[in-house]
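Consider the record:
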Amino acid sequence: MIISDFVYLKSNLNSKNLMASDSALANIFLLAPKYHTEISIKNSCLIRKYNGRENRLGYAFPVPLNNAPDDYLKNAVSDLIKNHSDKNPLRFCLCTMEQKNALDRCFAENFSSYKINWNTTRNDSDYIYLSQNLASLSGKILHKKKNHVSKFLREYENRFSFKLYPKENIASDILQIEDEWFNERSSDVEKAFDEKSLNLEKESIKEALENTEVFDITGAVIYIDEKPSAFCLASPAGSNTLDIHFEKVLSSVAENGGYAAINNFFAKENLSYLYINREEDMGVEGLRHAKLSYKPEIILDKFFGEVELS
């Protein structure tokens, strides 16, 4: 697909009940090179086929357009079944529990000779928070997080500033932070450095900034002594959920509560969204601990599976 297709989807995709990170149009576009995603609009819905491995192999749940008929899912599944065989089995991936159940009902009611053998992995689950909780950090549960923000405020009192993107023309500052963060990571022998993956991520950040208007990209930068030192970029995953795509903090600032600060400051600016999705932990133990420590309102599990004869 080309950018004009995403412009069309932005106005015509029914995003009312979407909240998963992979349903954000920006993610669909930005991660296409990583997962070799094939995207089309057929049967009044968005069809996504991921060509990765296991949990990233197969079709995502068909997302209806605003004008889709009631039987859009039946029509979409029928078309997918016709294009597969025993040698090339139909697979689904990245389906939420609600979407999984909808597919199961669709098969049971319309294609009863088939069933989907589902699996799930905790590594895929999205961490979704109430925006108000991330903004206020109130209560005993989030007291430690508020302390991290307080540490940042004490350390950089009268030395920091916070700017919003694209309200401010700070795209070049975001790219500067990304370059410095990348260089820090590559020179740190104690941290895993996947150069290919991080280069893809760097390109995705550039693409996001180049297509800000199309994907409703928003973000922010923290400056320390006027130096760009932390940033985040986000876009809508659904009508009431904002998805955080990227969040980077230079090491010296991270040590003094930088991640907690940009998380908190940005949440305060986005209370028009009920939820903030901070995406998966990818099985990284430290990342899982950090995401759980913010006490998610929802841990959104996702399922993958292969269609078999019942």
